[in-house]
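task queued by scheduler; priority normal; single chain, no ligands, no partner chains; default sampling; output format set to structure tokens
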Amino acid sequence: NAAQADQANEAVLTAMRHIDATMSTYKPSSEVSQVNARAADGPMPISKELFDLLVTAKEYSRLTEGAFDITYASVGYMYDFRKRIHPDEAHIKAALPAVNYEHVLLDGEHQTVQFSQKGVRIDLGGIAKGYAVDCGIDALRKAGITHGYVAAGGDSRMIGDRFGKPWVVGIRDPTKGEGSVIARVPLVDAAMSTSGDYERYFDEDGVRYHHIIDPHTGHSASKVRGATVIGGTATRTDGLSKTAFVLGPEQAMEIYNRIGDV
């Protein structure tokens, strides 16, 4: 009924607001911002939720041979897509040694994180939105919902079907404007993430500067314009959808085929 539906929707939004408050790098008070400020000084106790997500992020870094790397932020923080600002070669070169997921040291026994050198920053923008969608799905399930759909930008996940038919999710055509669809995918009990170079970007002198940064170069990754991954959870599909941008379709497909469940 309507009251239960409103309650379930509010539970989803509450879960998402919590993740934004703890993991947004735009909020100086967030737990991730505090980690960036202090983790280079020594082991820092963090919440179990953040610790577990950092463990998952490092796992995806290993799976993707470093194409997914939350320490990209050590260079990425110098980009401002709203103000059309990007770092020059000298600044990228100086910051690049801090980009390496191995710099993030996790101690499971004490639930701490530490950065192995100064200059390391993390940003969970490549995985936290998918994680927020999964938390939204958990909230719906707790509310007794058996058929539902949660989406946040390019990340979505559905439980059950939609009135006996699959849920249909559109993939945007990256060469055209908003509202243009290149494919529609029918899904039941699945997650899907699309990453594109059209989400946060600006063009300058024929070059597109966008938010998906290649951890190996510090530049915007440009092997593809868009990539869509389908899998079991939105955390997984979100974390793995950037790989094709960095490695290109062929190498990314090799990794996806090795993983098996995407």
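post-processing summary
- The mean pLDDT is 94.
- The first strand starts at residue 44 and ends at 45.
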